[in-house]
Amino acid sequence: MGNPWWREAVVYEIYVRSFADASGDGVGDLAGVRQRLPYLAELGVDAIWLTPFYRSPMADGGYDVADHRDVDPLFGTLDDFDAMVADAHALGLRVIVDIVPNHSSSAHAWFQAARRGEGRERYIFRDGGELPPNDWQSVFGGPAWTRLPDGQWYLHLFDSAQPDFNWRNPEVHAEFLDVLRFWLDRGVDGFRIDVAMGLYKAEGLPDTPVERQAFRTESPIWGQPEVHEVYRQWRKVLDSYDGDRMAVGEVWTDSIEDLALYLRPDELHQSFNFAWMEAPWSPTAFRTVIDDTMAIGASPTWVLSNHDVVRHVTRYGEGLPYSTTGLARARAALLTMLALPGSAYLYQGEELGLPEVTDLPPEARQDPIFARSEGKVPGRDGCRVPLPWSGTAAPYGFSPAGVAPWLPQPIEWAALTAGRQASDPESTLSFYRRALQARRVLRGSLPARITWLDSPEGALFFTRGPLTCAVNCGFNPVRLPPHDRVLIASAPLSDDMLPPDTAAWLHRS
Ligand code: GLC
User: Fold this and answer.
1) Where are the transmembrane segments (predicted)?
2) What is the CATH classification number for the domain harbouring 458?
3) CB burial readout 172-185, b (16+ within 10 A) else e
4) β partners of residue 14
5) Measured in whole angstroms, how far is the alpha carbon of residue 82 from the centre of its chain?
6) What is the band of 245 on the pLDDT scale with cuts at 50, 70, 90?
7) Ligand 1 centroid distance, CA of 460 (Å)
8) Which structural domain, as residue segments, surrounds residue 468?
9) Distance between CA 337 and CA 312 in Å, rounded?
10) What span, in angstroms and rounded, lies between the C-alpha atoms of 191 and 270?
11) Could you give the strand order of the β-sheet that contains 145-147, starting from the edge strand earlier in sequence?
């Protein structure tokens, strides 16, 4: 038996409402995903992760689930889901779906009942008088409590339309075990667990200083020890199915030791490596994250962007949306992460070099963060703008011509469509295809560890067996380390020199 598929997989995140709109209502859907699967197979990824497509009033883009066992009509039907999975599997693509266990939608049948006073022990209700029961703040801004007309308060760590479940109630456990089985029986290969370090809150819900509230260890809000028992149970369910079903956790924490707890052999298979995503463009920062990640000893993962953060072209470009430096660094960072042991998570559109859209009009913004912060925090819509597929004007093949997508697409994207980039060998899309292909060729023949080489100021060199990866984060060109040939580079090389903001894979027998 070789490695399970997920260990070295490249997983492509599909933010469903912004990927492809087959129904023509301006919102992406499952039929749109299905139509575009050949594009993903050709890109060379191994798996797709779909963000929530379940029944939802869309207060948080579907992370407010009203029914965990059905598809929202906006995205299609269960039949559309089954057809999409069948096609994905036929193309050799695995399918990971999102599971949102920390909270439901306020439109969920359980919360509707709770509103009427029935089954409130499934959520976190407290008496509070005029003031909320404690000082916890919502991640999206404002208090984490909302009061019902009868005087009781309920906890919501996110939007007020996302009440937190009470995981101290066995009924919640049973419900989620059943939901896992529902989707496993439909053939999914894995789950991405939303807010995986949430679920349990410290007994007594104590007040806590605001600086200890944000996704930290030693907080009464996140990372309580009881949560690990949930994942032990879930692991047993996953292991009871054939075909290496897996779970990847969205675990926000500031401690590598804490992260390692979720990755014990009887818990989650993987968690996102947000330290890599958050590292600045710096060889020392990269090296520290790589060393820390490898030290955990579990299956490593790498990620540069997702639907919650500013796209990395823009982050690396000092906030300027169409910075050539940002794009060069983004390409170099991809090559670096694909050379590392473990699996890589890509976010839709990064293969097109899409930047963050920083100038969305306020009236177009839909992220609850924007409204809850009274417009002070722009929120996450800028990384969720629908993909440009083809053509020279919006909707760029995302929706049928004449249909306005749910967020407006910039005019600059005419130059960035998948169709246009596919026929340009120098494009970011062509580069991604070559890089993923090169990784496939090497995969399996590379050791699970890396060895650092001495590297000049500003650069980072490491080897994995016959592969050497060199990345230059500095301001001056550096001489490439010894090699017999260049396998791929993120930008043209000349005279054995690696320019700034460039990475290369070198072969040495
Ligand atoms: C996760 C999701 C994010 C969502 C939040 C609440 O962080 O990635 O998009 O808003 O959970 O469910």
Assistant:
1) none
2) 2.60.40.1180
3) bbebbeebbeebbe
4) 50
5) 23
6) very high
7) 33
8) 435-507
9) 13
10) 10
11) 125-126, 153-155, 145-147
Mutate to test the pocket of ligand 1, among 104, 192, 308, 380 (most ligand atoms within 8 A of CB): 308
Establish if 332 belongs to a structural domain: no
Q: Which residue has the tokens 């093949």?
A: 397
CA distances in angstroms from 325 to 111, 395, 429, 499, 505, listed in the order given: 48, 27, 17, 12, 20
- The ligand 1 atom at the shortest distance from the C-alpha of residue 103 is 12
- Residue 416 pLDDT > 80: yes
Q: Is residue 468 part of a domain?
A: yes
pLDDT at 1: 47
Q: Is residue 254 part of a domain?
A: no
In a domain, 494, yes or no: yes
What's residue 26's pLDDT? 98
Is 195 a pocket residue for ligand 1 (Cβ < 6 Å)?
Answer: yes
Q: Are 54 and 66 in contact (CB under 8 A)?
A: yes
Contacts of 146 (CB under 8 A, 6+ apart): 153, 154, 156, 160
Sign of CA dihedral 171, 174, 180, 182: negative
How many folded domains does the chain comprise? 1
The catalytic site residues sit at 194, 250
